[in-house]
Design a protein that fits this description.
The protein has 140 residues and is α+β, with helices and mostly antiparallel strands. It contains 3 helices and 7 strands.
Length: 140
Amino acid sequence: MKTSAGIQWAQVTVAADLPEVLDHIDYERVVMNAGATWDYFPAHYDPRYAERNGHPTIFVNTMHIAGFVDRVATDWAGPCARVVRRKITLLGSIYAGDSMVGRGRVVAKRDGRLVDLAITVSNQRGELCCPAEVTLQLSG
């Protein structure tokens, strides 16, 4: 059961699937995120640079993907959950025009109200971009 404060510790079950999170990524968001995070690598805002370096167009930066991973976890757990550990592995890119698809599963519950999650970020074609491990600490 989920309350306005989020999921309750007693209700967390190992192997439970998290709700899928879908987020369309347009050109403006890619560029705005790069600017907001001061990540001025040209492949995040210059399509010609990205194409010259083997990419179809500009792509989101690592901080954008890490934030999306956290969103998948906290959309499920609620606003009082705290991310205490995140490990991501970048396998591919999310390009402007793609949709990010986040899926997750509870893999463990531990003392201290800790919940371990396995999360994947793929594009709309099902190509895996980023497998991740997240540990949340639940409140109360």
